[in-house]
Amino acid sequence: MQDVIRQSITAVSSVVLGKEEQIRLAVSCLLARGHLLIEDLPGMGKTTLAHALARVFSLDYRRVQFTSDMLPADILGVSIFNPQTREFEPKDGPVFTQLLLADEINRATPKTQGALLEAMEERQVTLDGLTRALPDPFFVVATQNPVTQSGTFPLPESQLDRFLMRLSLGYPSAEMELKLLAGSDRRQLAVNLKPVASGEQLQHAMAEVRKVRASRDLIDYIQRLLAYSRNGGLFVAGLSPRAGIGLLNASRAWALTGGRDYVIPEDVQVVLGPVAEHRLQSLAGGAAATATQKLLESVPVVRRQ
After folding, report:
1. According to CATH, where is 3.40.50.300 located in the chain?
2. DSSP state string for 264-278
């Protein structure tokens, strides 16, 4: 299984150049059964990353371009009356897939954004009183433009909390940008990627994440991080228990992608930013990343006696 995970990360890295850590984090998010939010400027490779993940992990893939006039039915589907049977029959929306790319999610209105809440949390959709399960796995990769750009609706806290991780790809290095300019079209390369992991292998890897060992001291470290986020005077409101469970699951997945069946404190420290920063608002008014780094510096790995 370790070889399959490593080969999958390598395959995606052949398309999205110079972003190995972000790719490994995205794979960890998938293996931990979370959802991923990618916030960046247009043209940074967000869509290419999502498409490459779908190809490499043999996932059914659908893309929805969010706009201000989109309605919840455009995502969830509708019920259509059949005059022959005299019954309403469901017509599936694009949410009925394994990897849903919600492109520029913050260009839709809050009502449409909220249509994804049940799907992301419960892995099901209720339409006209009928509840239907979504495919397994179900992985949402949402992209959003910076809120400073025109035509955006900031995601509310309840929506942000549905995402296990938030990442930013950022500009490529000069070396990688030269390769991008001189090489083939990255979108076409993503389309041509060969599957590396089958659906059965992906399910097995997800099950293995749950088996990655976390010692009592490691769990104590995570709990103290949560407690300090609430009581340390750094944030408006601290991390919730759900965020704590997500932090542990993400740490397990990161350890597995690194070839280990146990979690170490460095795993927690790597994933803390992607898991926590979109859930936190700094009291000092600066970037959440700076306050999160101070959180790590303030909480020792080993409990002081």
Report:
1. 2-201
2. -HHHHHHHHHHHHGG
CB contact at 8 A, 115 and 72: yes
137 cis-preceded (ω within 30 degrees of 0): yes
Mean pLDDT of 104-117: 84
Checking if the pLDDT of 288 tops 70, the result is yes
Q: Which of 61, 2, 8, 9 is nearest to 198 (CA)?
A: 8
CATH superfamily of 212-298: Magnesium chelatase subunit I, C-Terminal domain (1.10.8.80)
**Model pTM?**
0.91
Paired strand residues for 38: 143, 167
Q: Compute and round to an integer the Cα radius of gyration of the chain.
A: 20
What letter would DSSP give residue 148? Answer: T
In the chain, the largest separation of any two C-alpha atoms, in whole Å, equals 75
Q: Is the pLDDT of residue 100 over 90?
A: yes
Tokens of 24: 């490994």
Could you give the CA distance from residue 254 to residue 232 in angstroms, rounded to a whole number?
A: 27
Q: What is the CATH number of domain 2-201?
A: 3.40.50.300
